[in-house]
Amino acid sequence: MGKSLILLGLLLVGLGLLISAGVPLGRLPGDITIRRGNSVIYLPIVTCLVISLVLSVILSLFRR
User: Fold this and answer.
1) How far is CA 55 from CA 32, 33, 52, in A?
2) pLDDT digits 0-9 by tens, 5-38
3) 5 partner at 20 to 30 Å CA-CA among 16, 23, 39, 60?
4) What is the reported pTM?
5) What is the DSSP code string of 2-56?
């Protein structure tokens, strides 16, 4: 359990460093933005796919 928490903390620090470095997490090509009048609808399809892929890889490493 302790190793898992340390690894999770390191992953969060790495994610924070990527975001502060300017990686556009959340505004990837393929994400859909619809603007009509005063309303905006944002559908982060590609961002969700990337996050799902990364989490799947991380969880598969924990299972081994």
Assistant:
1) 22, 25, 5
2) 888 888 888 888 877 887 777 778 889 999 999 9
3) 23
4) 0.60
5) HHHHHHHHHHHHHHHHHHHHT--TT--TT-EEEEETTEEEEE-HHHHHHHHHHHH
